[in-house]
Amino acid sequence: MQLGKRIKELRIENNLTQEELAEQLGVSFQAVSRWENDLTYPDIILLPILANMFDVTVDYLLDVDVMKKEAEIDAIIEEYFVLLNQGKIDENLILLENALKKYPNSFDLKHALLHIYFTKGLDPDLKEYNDKAIKLANEILEKCVDDSIRYGAMQTLILIYTSRKELDKAKQIVKKLPMMVITSEWFWPDVLTGEDRI
After folding, report:
1. Considering the entire predicted model, what is its pTM?
2. Least C-beta-crowded within 10 Å: which of 4, 20, 27, 193?
């Protein structure tokens, strides 16, 4: 994080001394000096004040580029699919585990890694990957709000528990899945006429 460097650059651009910035924020100039030298960080409640003062976003102060992050994750997922199509499971494992070190909160990456763990766990000699898949799937279910990712994790758990003959656990997951009795296919005949209906 380059917060101290950002604060210093913005302070200089706005023709402020450390003392002037400190006075406006109600802190000591020594505190500003420590921030700029990355010895300490400003209190979190000061971040929006600093952002407003310098007419930037808090993300800019914290050097968070959301678009860049999303583009990098998308590129990793694209590489994942290329490797998957080439059957390179071990390369994918390394790619995704390393990517999650950089983006530990990306459920897209976790979902892809879950697939790799499950695939590796199909090998009778690599059953420990089933345990990794179960742990990761449960983490997804606990923290992720994207239903498509959650349902994928549930499917993985059902398949693993079924293969282990742990049918009670599989049934508990099945009960949590939504009933899909009414779908768009159900209603199309009612709203279409003529050739469209046929």
Report:
1. 0.64
2. 193
